Amino acid sequence: MGTGLDNVIAAETVLSHVDGEAGRLIIRGHDLEELAGSASYEQAVALLWAGFVPVPTDIASMRDRLGAARAKAFTHFVPLLPSLGRLTATEAMRLLLSSIPDGESGQEPFDVLAAAGVAAACAMRTTAGLNSVEPDISLPHAADVFRMIRGRSGDADEVRAFESYLVTIIDHGLNASTFAARVVASTAARLPSAVVAALCALKGPLHGGAPGPVLDMLDAVGTPGNADAWISDALKRGERLMGFGHRVYRVRDPRANVLKMTVAKFKGRANRIALAEAVEAAALRALRDFKSDRRLDTNVEFYTALLLEALDIPRAGFTPVFGLGRTAGWIAHAREQEQTGRLIRPQSRYIGPWPVKAA
Length: 359
Fold this sequence. Notes:
Structural class: mainly alpha
Radius of gyration: 21 Å
Low-confidence stretches: none
CATH topology of the largest domain: Citrate Synthase, domain 1
Order of helices and strands: EEEHHHHHHHHHHHHHHH
Shape: globular
Oligomer: single chain
CATH superfamily of the largest domain: Citrate Synthase, domain 1
Number of helices: 15
Number of domains: 2
């Protein structure tokens, strides 16, 4: 067994399936491509939570409950904002979420999901020296959180793209942050604790921190004409190309396909789509030569970076935005784990020294 628990089955789930060989992601019986771009975030959440959280039968009621919960979270967070000091946006989001008390079982998932969106927006703006924006409970969840992050409403295409992104990253098998949430939930701790644990795992650069460095790479390349030379030099230096390759996928990450189509709708605006396309093409050509023993393809982080930049979301907020979208999945996995009633307690193999017996 490898030290990363590769190929170890740690849970049975009805929530999502990642087929790394086929490049397929299934969410509750639906291919990702079927959901993203067509389902609202509330619809995707209701699908994911079915059987684990008592959700309203109509989406309007779902929006109302999340709207009221956003207002409740904002009121709770306002006195805490001055204490965020010199924290990063992700650290500030973690602090705010850690202040959420355990709640009534039926309402707690809505409170925690709404709090994640509000915490991300408040953390991003406060740590950037900007005033936080109060929720508009009449708006759908994605549209309102997007408005709270940027301080202004987006146009229809921007809101649709942001919502498509949240649906795309809503769940993804038993990744590090989701496993962290399930471990905490298995102890009978409540949802706020499970979600904070998941966010702590997401903060690590090997899990949720790569989209920012993708933009650093685009900065360094500069122009499409420099792409081939820059990529070749980076690989010769032994550097990792951010946004390419995945621990599970052996072919193209299906989430990258969805987000690439979403990004394409913004061509012609003030963004770096043409540069990104040139870098992607150069990287894939070079990787076929430098890494011929393993296929490395574009992953979700590459087009996440480009889309969020096109939506005028600062790099410091990329991990919080990922976290607010993934919180629905963390909640679903925590509730599914609770239903097993089983504490997660794997074994380890001791390889240290043994006591020396006295003669």
